[in-house]
Amino acid sequence: MIFSKKLKTPSDNPPSRIPLPVELLRKIVGHAIRLEGHESVELEDPFSPHGVGEELPEIDPGMFHDRRVLGQVNSTLRAIVAEISSEYLVIRCPKELKHLIQLFKRSQLYGSGKRLGERTRRIDLKIIGQYSAKRVAALLQLTPNLLIFVHQSNRHHKDLGRVNKELIRGLMLFGRNIRRLDFDSIGEAPALYDLIDVSRFLPKLETLRILCVHSYPTDPAAVRRLHIAHFHHLKTLSLGPIPAPQSQEIPRHYIGVWDPLLHYLGLNTNQLPVLERFETGIVPVHDTTFFETHGYKIRMLRVTTVRAGTQLPVALNHCTNLESLVFAHSIAGADAFCIPTGHHTLKRICVTPSIERVTEVPAKVFMFAVLKPLEELIERVEGMDLPAVEEIRVRDYGAYSRLVEHVNFLNMWWRRFALRGIRFVDQEGKPYDNIVDRDEAILDKIRA
Question: Are 137 and 173 in contact (CB under 8 A)?
Fold first, then answer.
């Protein structure tokens, strides 16, 4: 007998589709398309393992492709993608800025009971060229739960410029929940007056990072009338290397050291009552008022060795409760600064490369330009009187990524510090006594 139809077996029946709960689906999709760092109010901890940092890598363009594809599957995934994408905004052109404003204005309440703009926790503004600062203010009005605002627009322009007053006004009006603020552009740098306004209208600010200050008042009468800034909740103050304008003469109001700002912030101890972490690309040259006023509060201090100068020992003397000291070290840094003879409360020292991108150079150049200055710094640290130090960490990434090739060098220093009861470790916190090339270790696991 010939059957006109094929008999069905149990395996031929398509499995019934069991929908995933929306919250589980949101977690799965989030792992695929969420940008890291959307709630990174604190700066990266140099004593934690170095991952893919939020500051260094460009965003993988494949992530935006994944977002588009997932958003086309069905309405549920489209809503989830929209919610997650709204958490962290990276704006690179005026067109994107305009689109986001329109999108947030017409967005409806989503499953979480929030409009898209209410989900935004971080905005990185990276526009090159002209744009409307009023539109930035409009976006700030639509993102009332914003925690982090990173301003890097026109960062690569080498001419000095002041941040637009409309943008500062937007922060003053709509940024009351902001807890981290970065001014990271010489092309749009804040003036001292702008920082004073920030202190008055951003009451929850915990982290403030400034590349440079556009200008300070020079008129004596104006200086006397200055409002005293109080950053009531600021825990971290990070000051950059103050780049010099390259295609113009340096204006008289642009000062290439941090002494004026730090003197102003050191007028009284109530200006920074909860300060814990201080980073500076340039140690104050002539004025130690800041350390005299706030030094006892600082638990972590980071300095760039090439601009640490002769005042670092004086500054450290005022940091009577310091626990962590970080040296951002460069090729020319070994002999360019004075190192203190010791410190009685210091528990950890970290040496991190000032060049954080991997740099490929010939072996002889690495020995001369990287390893020799590093060894000179470690020798000077070894000579310090450090009764409380428990760990010395050398972060083997960026310019130091080839350190693992110099096993004898690392093992020698591990033994010398071990005799003093001090751990000598890499960026992951692993001792340098048994060196394993991380790339080779990964390959070994694959081969196994």
Answer: yes
